[in-house]
Amino acid sequence: MGGRHRTDDLDGGYNPYHEPAGRRRASRGKVLVPLAGAVALAVLLGVAAYVIVSRDRTCGQAGVAKVALNVVASPDIEPAIAKIAAAYNGAATPQGDGCVTVAVKSGDSASVTNAIAGSGATSGKFDADLWIPDSSLWVSKLRASHKGAGLPEPSGSAARSPVVLAAPKSVVEKLRGAFGEPSWSGLMSAANAATPDGIGRNIRVLPLDPTVNAAGLSAILAGASVLKGSGTGEEQLVGVLRQLSESAVSTPANMFATMTKQSSRAPIGIVSEQGVWAYNDKTKPGTIVALYPAEGTISLDYPIVVTAKEQAAREAAKKFATALTGADAGKTVRDHGFRTPDGKGGAALGRENGLDPATPRAIKMPDAAQVTRLSQAWSRLKLGGRLLALLDISGTMALPAVGAPGDRMRLIAQTAIEGLKLFPDKTEAGTWIFSTNLNGQGVDYRETVPVGPIGQKLNGVPRREVITRSLSRLRAKATGDTGLNDTLAAAYDKMKAEYEADKINTILVFTDGVGNDDPEGGITNSEILKKLRDEFDRTQPISVIIVALGADDAAGRRQMRAIAQATQGQAFFPRNALEIRKVFLEGISRRLCAPNCGGSGQ
């Protein structure tokens, strides 16, 4: 044969295990082949080592670039988000050129909203990369503001928690006996200031302040939606808001604390389902029971909002947002008493803990305009009131009343007493009586109770009771005429001099509709109208509201309407005592438009 064949050359490398012992001569080209193989092997080993080292890098290792992601979450969901973040950090690997570490802190949603918008009471500058408020209502509010207009749309939802009614387990049966199955309509009825003798006598409603709590605002939106669907008039909603504004509490903790106090009325609160779970988890399972409204409800939806400004932080925030909607995160939020965004709850929402795991019916979220309108209505109804009531005791008040027993004076007194029930203790009120020459010649009015808080005591007796007693003792002056114009001019001057900017300032006139009737002269009808028109100040409005019972005189009606219109007020002409509460509620509702209300009469 012609010689031996080199199989190692065919393989492209040198194999010493096939080479016989002893020294060999080799050409230059054949030396390069094994060197090239060695270099290739070294390169491969180096790449493998780099991959292994990179894979094993941690966020605490020196030389690894770090991206610190700051998350602010609503206090109720912050523990769950913090647990999710801890697991995320523990499993973290470098992302791009850096390593992400997530830090979570609690931030009240209302305070964060104010901080971003630069309005209201703030808790400092907001500089987080990711924000999880308890409701999209805050996001909508911000996006409608000047400074918050650029806020991104939420990239998802971390959890869900329906807004429910809540009560101690011990009173649930009493509540069911009062208004049947839990419902927004029943709650609205119990909270209506216009029906103080209704079921509200036995039930104490404890809402959350909607200006600082999304569950409170959601409840008002749900209740208003139910009332609107039933065709109920605006005055009933105003009555409900007025009453709720007096009993609202700032936090769920305060609400639960109030529930535990002894009272002759059964307490019922408004809170998120998770709020019930959290309270029971700290106390005793089933202490508080969640009651699910039959009409459905609105849920807190915990939107995930990326607020980072730098690109690296934005990308990291988006990745963490994705993790917040994953299966592991879903289990964590369910374990903390929440539902996942699809409405499904976990074992924490058991009936033994006062909760119902079934997904409740949903009420459609009202549009932004409705949310804004109700929010503004609440704020204006929360304003204090300063009221001076002028009561006609002229001779015609001794005439028989229409639609009620007794004379007009008695009906006027009953009217005022009924109206007084609708005002909270912080309202400032006082009374004058008027006819002719009541306080000396030519002075047609006399102060009976000075203006002040009706909850304040005068000689040991609350001003409310002093006014009620005074009204009960009113008698018509048989020979007296009606010095309305002089009285109204003096009252207007007093209210102007004592104007309080943080209150709704009103003059309330009770009369029988005859109008001014002063044979001794005094201010004429045209003069009082000119005075009111000239002196009415839209920046410091003082409105005149007239309640005229049994007003049959056409000229008197025209004059009273004109007086009301001159001050952006209103004249009412109820036919009997049954219409009085509605009149007062319509008067209270004028806070929502003052000083731009139309001065029309009935």
From TrEMBL:
Q: Which UniProt keywords apply?
A: Membrane, Transmembrane, Transmembrane helix
Where does the chain cross the membrane? 31-53
Q: Which InterPro entries is this protein grouped with?
A: VWF_A (IPR002035), vWFA_dom_sf (IPR036465)
* Domain VWFA, chain residue ranges per copy: 386-588
Spell out the Basic and acidic residues composition-biased ranges.
Answer: 332-342
Q: Where is this region: Disordered?
A: 1-23, 332-361
SUPFAM superfamilies for this protein: Periplasmic binding protein-like II, vWA-like
Pfam families the record matches:
SBP_bac_11
Query: Under what name is this protein listed?
Result: ABC-type Fe3+ transport system substrate-binding protein
Q: Which organism is it from?
A: Sphaerisporangium krabiense
